[in-house]
Amino acid sequence: MDKCPEIPGFGRTQGCPDADHDGIADRDDECPHKYGVVSLGGCPIKDVDNDSIPDVDDECPTLPGLAQFKGCPDTDHDGIEDRKDSCATVAGLLQFNGCPDTDGDGIEDRFDACPTESGPLEYYYGCPVRDTDGDGVEDKLDACLLVAGKAEFKGCPDTDNDGVEDALDLCPTIVGPKDNKGCPVVEKKDREKLELAVKAVKFQTGKAILKAESSKILTDIANILAKYPYYGLSMDGHTDSAGNDKSNQLLSEKRALACLDFLVKKGIDKNRLKSAGFGETRPVADNKTAAGRTKNRRVEFNLFLMEKK
Protein backbone atom coordinates (compact mmCIF):
# COMPACT_ATOMS: atom_id res chain seq x y z
CA MET A 1 0.00 0.00 0.00
CA ASP A 2 1.47 3.33 -1.12
CA LYS A 3 1.16 5.86 1.62
CA CYS A 4 2.37 8.60 -0.71
CA PRO A 5 0.49 7.79 -4.01
CA GLU A 6 1.07 11.19 -5.53
CA ILE A 7 4.81 11.34 -4.79
CA PRO A 8 7.47 8.96 -6.07
CA GLY A 9 8.98 6.98 -3.25
CA PHE A 10 10.55 3.70 -2.21
CA GLY A 11 9.20 0.37 -1.22
CA ARG A 12 11.18 0.42 2.00
CA THR A 13 9.32 3.57 3.01
CA GLN A 14 5.93 2.33 1.75
CA GLY A 15 6.07 4.47 -1.39
CA CYS A 16 7.12 7.67 0.36
CA PRO A 17 10.28 9.59 -0.52
CA ASP A 18 13.51 9.24 1.53
CA ALA A 19 15.78 12.04 0.38
CA ASP A 20 18.74 11.05 2.58
CA HIS A 21 18.31 7.33 2.01
CA ASP A 22 18.41 6.54 5.69
CA GLY A 23 15.35 4.25 5.49
CA ILE A 24 13.11 6.82 7.19
CA ALA A 25 10.41 8.45 5.11
CA ASP A 26 10.88 12.17 4.74
CA ARG A 27 7.48 12.86 6.34
CA ASP A 28 8.69 11.01 9.49
CA ASP A 29 12.31 12.26 9.30
CA GLU A 30 13.22 15.27 11.45
CA CYS A 31 16.38 15.65 9.39
CA PRO A 32 15.15 14.56 5.88
CA HIS A 33 18.30 15.70 4.14
CA LYS A 34 20.80 14.20 6.60
CA TYR A 35 21.40 10.53 6.99
CA GLY A 36 20.27 9.57 10.46
CA VAL A 37 18.94 6.89 12.77
CA VAL A 38 15.46 6.06 13.98
CA SER A 39 16.41 6.63 17.63
CA LEU A 40 17.22 10.26 16.84
CA GLY A 41 14.08 10.84 14.68
CA GLY A 42 16.04 10.41 11.49
CA CYS A 43 18.77 12.86 12.49
CA PRO A 44 22.42 11.85 12.32
CA ILE A 45 24.41 10.72 15.32
CA LYS A 46 26.35 13.82 16.58
CA ASP A 47 30.11 13.52 17.10
CA VAL A 48 31.41 17.09 17.25
CA ASP A 49 35.00 16.10 18.00
CA ASN A 50 35.07 13.31 15.42
CA ASP A 51 36.40 10.73 17.83
CA SER A 52 33.83 8.12 16.76
CA ILE A 53 32.07 8.42 20.10
CA PRO A 54 28.56 9.86 19.83
CA ASP A 55 28.14 13.12 21.68
CA VAL A 56 25.35 11.57 23.68
CA ASP A 57 27.87 9.11 25.11
CA ASP A 58 30.89 11.46 25.01
CA GLU A 59 31.82 13.11 28.35
CA CYS A 60 34.23 15.38 26.47
CA PRO A 61 32.21 16.08 23.29
CA THR A 62 34.45 18.91 22.07
CA LEU A 63 37.75 17.09 22.60
CA PRO A 64 38.82 14.01 20.66
CA GLY A 65 39.23 11.19 23.13
CA LEU A 66 39.24 7.48 23.78
CA ALA A 67 36.40 5.09 24.34
CA GLN A 68 38.03 3.79 27.54
CA PHE A 69 37.74 7.29 28.99
CA LYS A 70 34.21 7.89 27.63
CA GLY A 71 35.47 10.16 24.89
CA CYS A 72 37.90 12.15 27.03
CA PRO A 73 41.55 12.56 25.97
CA ASP A 74 44.85 11.17 27.28
CA THR A 75 47.21 13.66 25.68
CA ASP A 76 50.47 12.14 26.92
CA HIS A 77 49.34 8.54 26.28
CA ASP A 78 50.28 7.38 29.77
CA GLY A 79 47.01 5.58 30.39
CA ILE A 80 45.69 8.32 32.66
CA GLU A 81 42.98 10.56 31.23
CA ASP A 82 43.75 14.28 31.22
CA ARG A 83 40.98 15.07 33.72
CA LYS A 84 42.80 13.03 36.34
CA ASP A 85 46.35 13.70 35.13
CA SER A 86 48.31 16.38 37.07
CA CYS A 87 50.91 16.37 34.28
CA ALA A 88 48.65 15.92 31.26
CA THR A 89 51.28 16.73 28.64
CA VAL A 90 54.08 14.58 30.09
CA ALA A 91 53.82 10.81 30.45
CA GLY A 92 53.85 9.76 34.08
CA LEU A 93 52.79 7.24 36.65
CA LEU A 94 49.45 6.53 38.25
CA GLN A 95 50.97 6.72 41.76
CA PHE A 96 51.95 10.33 41.05
CA ASN A 97 48.65 11.29 39.40
CA GLY A 98 50.21 11.07 35.96
CA CYS A 99 53.40 12.97 36.76
CA PRO A 100 56.80 11.47 35.86
CA ASP A 101 59.61 9.95 37.89
CA THR A 102 62.28 10.00 35.21
CA ASP A 103 65.04 8.33 37.22
CA GLY A 104 62.72 5.77 38.81
CA ASP A 105 63.82 6.48 42.37
CA GLY A 106 60.30 6.76 43.73
CA ILE A 107 60.35 10.58 43.90
CA GLU A 108 58.33 12.40 41.29
CA ASP A 109 60.34 14.82 39.19
CA ARG A 110 58.82 18.04 40.51
CA PHE A 111 59.97 17.17 44.04
CA ASP A 112 63.27 15.59 42.94
CA ALA A 113 66.38 17.82 43.11
CA CYS A 114 68.10 15.46 40.67
CA PRO A 115 65.27 14.15 38.46
CA THR A 116 67.59 12.32 36.06
CA GLU A 117 69.82 10.70 38.72
CA SER A 118 68.49 8.15 41.17
CA GLY A 119 68.87 8.98 44.85
CA PRO A 120 67.12 8.78 48.24
CA LEU A 121 64.69 11.34 49.55
CA GLU A 122 66.16 11.62 53.04
CA TYR A 123 68.93 14.27 53.19
CA TYR A 124 69.44 14.21 49.42
CA TYR A 125 66.05 15.17 47.97
CA GLY A 126 66.40 12.59 45.23
CA CYS A 127 70.05 13.22 44.42
CA PRO A 128 72.64 10.42 44.46
CA VAL A 129 74.68 9.82 47.60
CA ARG A 130 78.02 11.40 46.71
CA ASP A 131 81.42 11.41 48.39
CA THR A 132 83.44 13.89 46.36
CA ASP A 133 86.68 13.53 48.31
CA GLY A 134 86.35 9.75 48.71
CA ASP A 135 86.81 9.76 52.47
CA GLY A 136 83.77 7.66 53.29
CA VAL A 137 81.80 10.65 54.57
CA GLU A 138 78.85 11.58 52.37
CA ASP A 139 78.99 15.08 50.90
CA LYS A 140 75.81 16.07 52.72
CA LEU A 141 77.49 15.35 56.05
CA ASP A 142 81.02 16.39 55.06
CA ALA A 143 82.21 19.71 56.51
CA CYS A 144 85.36 19.52 54.33
CA LEU A 145 83.84 18.53 51.02
CA LEU A 146 86.94 18.65 48.84
CA VAL A 147 89.52 17.35 51.33
CA ALA A 148 89.60 13.75 52.55
CA GLY A 149 89.09 13.54 56.28
CA LYS A 150 87.73 11.45 59.12
CA ALA A 151 84.17 10.67 60.13
CA GLU A 152 84.87 11.74 63.72
CA PHE A 153 85.66 15.24 62.42
CA LYS A 154 82.71 15.36 60.00
CA GLY A 155 84.95 14.60 57.06
CA CYS A 156 87.68 17.11 57.94
CA PRO A 157 91.33 16.03 58.05
CA ASP A 158 93.74 15.28 60.86
CA THR A 159 96.93 15.23 58.83
CA ASP A 160 99.28 14.16 61.62
CA ASN A 161 96.79 11.68 63.13
CA ASP A 162 97.19 13.07 66.62
CA GLY A 163 93.46 13.22 67.35
CA VAL A 164 93.21 16.96 66.75
CA GLU A 165 91.56 18.00 63.50
CA ASP A 166 93.62 20.32 61.33
CA ALA A 167 91.24 23.25 61.73
CA LEU A 168 91.95 23.28 65.49
CA ASP A 169 95.52 22.00 65.31
CA LEU A 170 98.15 24.73 65.52
CA CYS A 171 100.70 22.13 64.39
CA PRO A 172 98.71 20.11 61.81
CA THR A 173 101.74 18.26 60.43
CA ILE A 174 103.44 17.50 63.77
CA VAL A 175 101.99 15.16 66.40
CA GLY A 176 101.00 16.82 69.65
CA PRO A 177 98.50 16.41 72.50
CA LYS A 178 95.02 17.86 72.36
CA ASP A 179 95.52 19.93 75.49
CA ASN A 180 98.42 21.67 73.74
CA LYS A 181 96.36 22.42 70.64
CA GLY A 182 97.97 19.56 68.72
CA CYS A 183 101.55 20.83 69.15
CA PRO A 184 104.43 19.02 70.87
CA VAL A 185 105.12 20.00 74.45
CA VAL A 186 108.37 21.88 75.04
CA GLU A 187 110.92 19.56 76.61
CA LYS A 188 111.79 20.04 80.26
CA LYS A 189 115.42 20.97 79.56
CA ASP A 190 114.30 23.73 77.20
CA ARG A 191 111.76 25.07 79.71
CA GLU A 192 114.52 25.18 82.30
CA LYS A 193 116.71 27.30 80.02
CA LEU A 194 113.89 29.80 79.64
CA GLU A 195 113.52 29.94 83.40
CA LEU A 196 117.27 30.36 83.79
CA ALA A 197 117.27 33.28 81.36
CA VAL A 198 115.45 35.43 83.90
CA LYS A 199 118.61 35.38 86.02
CA ALA A 200 121.22 34.91 83.30
CA VAL A 201 120.31 37.84 81.04
CA LYS A 202 122.08 40.88 82.42
CA PHE A 203 122.39 44.55 81.43
CA GLN A 204 124.73 47.37 82.14
CA THR A 205 123.54 49.32 85.19
CA GLY A 206 120.71 51.66 84.35
CA LYS A 207 121.01 50.90 80.63
CA ALA A 208 119.44 48.63 78.00
CA ILE A 209 122.83 47.36 76.83
CA LEU A 210 123.26 43.61 77.19
CA LYS A 211 126.35 42.36 79.01
CA ALA A 212 128.52 39.95 77.05
CA GLU A 213 127.69 37.13 79.45
CA SER A 214 124.04 37.30 78.30
CA SER A 215 124.97 36.16 74.82
CA LYS A 216 125.15 32.44 75.65
CA ILE A 217 121.69 32.11 77.21
CA LEU A 218 120.07 34.26 74.49
CA THR A 219 121.73 32.08 71.84
CA ASP A 220 120.29 29.04 73.62
CA ILE A 221 116.86 30.68 73.44
CA ALA A 222 117.32 31.32 69.70
CA ASN A 223 118.10 27.61 69.27
CA ILE A 224 114.97 26.67 71.23
CA LEU A 225 112.86 28.85 68.94
CA ALA A 226 114.45 27.20 65.91
CA LYS A 227 113.61 23.80 67.41
CA TYR A 228 109.97 24.73 68.01
CA PRO A 229 108.97 26.81 64.94
CA TYR A 230 105.29 26.78 65.92
CA TYR A 231 105.99 28.73 69.12
CA GLY A 232 106.43 32.44 69.55
CA LEU A 233 108.21 34.17 72.41
CA SER A 234 107.16 37.10 74.53
CA MET A 235 109.79 39.09 76.47
CA ASP A 236 108.57 41.17 79.39
CA GLY A 237 110.94 43.68 80.96
CA HIS A 238 110.76 44.67 84.66
CA THR A 239 112.74 46.98 86.97
CA ASP A 240 113.10 47.58 90.66
CA SER A 241 111.58 50.65 92.31
CA ALA A 242 114.73 52.76 92.33
CA GLY A 243 114.43 55.90 90.25
CA ASN A 244 111.24 57.52 88.89
CA ASP A 245 108.36 55.56 87.44
CA LYS A 246 108.61 57.00 83.94
CA SER A 247 112.29 56.22 83.58
CA ASN A 248 111.77 52.69 84.90
CA GLN A 249 108.97 52.08 82.44
CA LEU A 250 111.07 53.21 79.50
CA LEU A 251 114.07 51.18 80.69
CA SER A 252 111.99 48.00 81.02
CA GLU A 253 110.67 48.43 77.49
CA LYS A 254 114.14 49.01 76.03
CA ARG A 255 115.64 46.01 77.81
CA ALA A 256 112.95 43.68 76.51
CA LEU A 257 113.42 45.12 73.03
CA ALA A 258 117.20 44.60 73.27
CA CYS A 259 116.57 40.88 73.81
CA LEU A 260 114.19 40.80 70.84
CA ASP A 261 116.76 42.47 68.59
CA PHE A 262 119.40 39.94 69.64
CA LEU A 263 117.14 37.05 68.61
CA VAL A 264 116.29 38.67 65.28
CA LYS A 265 120.00 38.94 64.56
CA LYS A 266 120.20 35.22 65.27
CA GLY A 267 117.76 34.59 62.46
CA ILE A 268 114.46 34.39 64.34
CA ASP A 269 111.49 35.84 62.44
CA LYS A 270 110.47 39.08 64.11
CA ASN A 271 106.81 38.16 63.64
CA ARG A 272 107.29 35.38 66.22
CA LEU A 273 108.52 37.78 68.86
CA LYS A 274 106.84 40.23 71.22
CA SER A 275 108.34 42.60 73.73
CA ALA A 276 106.79 44.74 76.42
CA GLY A 277 107.84 46.66 79.50
CA PHE A 278 106.11 46.92 82.87
CA GLY A 279 108.53 49.11 84.78
CA GLU A 280 108.34 48.58 88.54
CA THR A 281 104.64 47.57 88.55
CA ARG A 282 105.14 43.80 88.87
CA PRO A 283 107.73 43.05 91.53
CA VAL A 284 108.47 39.45 92.51
CA ALA A 285 110.45 40.35 95.62
CA ASP A 286 110.77 43.07 98.24
CA ASN A 287 112.26 46.26 96.80
CA LYS A 288 113.44 47.25 100.29
CA THR A 289 116.33 44.77 100.12
CA ALA A 290 119.23 44.56 97.69
CA ALA A 291 118.48 40.91 96.99
CA GLY A 292 114.86 41.74 96.31
CA ARG A 293 115.71 44.55 93.93
CA THR A 294 118.08 42.24 92.05
CA LYS A 295 115.24 39.75 91.48
CA ASN A 296 112.90 42.50 90.32
CA ARG A 297 115.36 43.65 87.66
CA ARG A 298 114.63 41.00 85.06
CA VAL A 299 113.36 40.04 81.61
CA GLU A 300 110.91 37.12 81.55
CA PHE A 301 110.81 34.80 78.55
CA ASN A 302 107.53 32.98 77.79
CA LEU A 303 106.80 30.70 74.86
CA PHE A 304 103.33 30.81 73.33
CA LEU A 305 101.70 28.83 70.54
CA MET A 306 101.28 30.92 67.43
CA GLU A 307 97.72 31.10 66.13
CA LYS A 308 97.00 30.31 62.52
CA LYS A 309 96.78 33.24 60.15
Set out the fold topology:
Layout: H1 188-200, H2 214-227, E1 231-238, H3 245-265, E2 273-277, H4 290-296, E3 298-305
Q: Describe it for me?
A:
The chain is α+β, with helices and mostly antiparallel strands. It has a domain at 188-305: OmpA-like domain (60s Ribosomal Protein L30, Chain: A), CATH 3.30.1330.60. Helix content is 18%, strand content 7%. The chain has helices at 188-200, 214-227, 245-265, 290-296, and strands spanning 231-238, 273-277, 298-305. A 3-stranded mixed sheet has the order 2-1-3. Helix 1 packs antiparallel against helix 2. The longest helix is centred in the last third of the chain and has 21 residues, at 245-265. The radius of gyration is 50 Å and the shape is rod-shaped. The N and C termini lie far apart (119 Å). The model has no long low-confidence stretch (mean pLDDT 91).
What is the H/E order?
Answer: HHEHEHE
Strand order of the largest sheet: 2-1-3
**Structure classification:** alpha+beta
- Helicity level, as a percent range? 10-25%
Task: Write down how many β-strands occur, each being a DSSP E stretch of 2 or more residues.
Answer: 3
What does the radius of gyration come to?
50 Å
CATH top level class name of the domain at 188-305:
Alpha Beta
Which residues sit in consecutive blocks of at least 5 with pLDDT less than 50?
none
Average of pLDDT: 91
Spell out the CATH superfamily of the domain at 188-305: OmpA-like domain
Please identify the oligomeric state: single chain
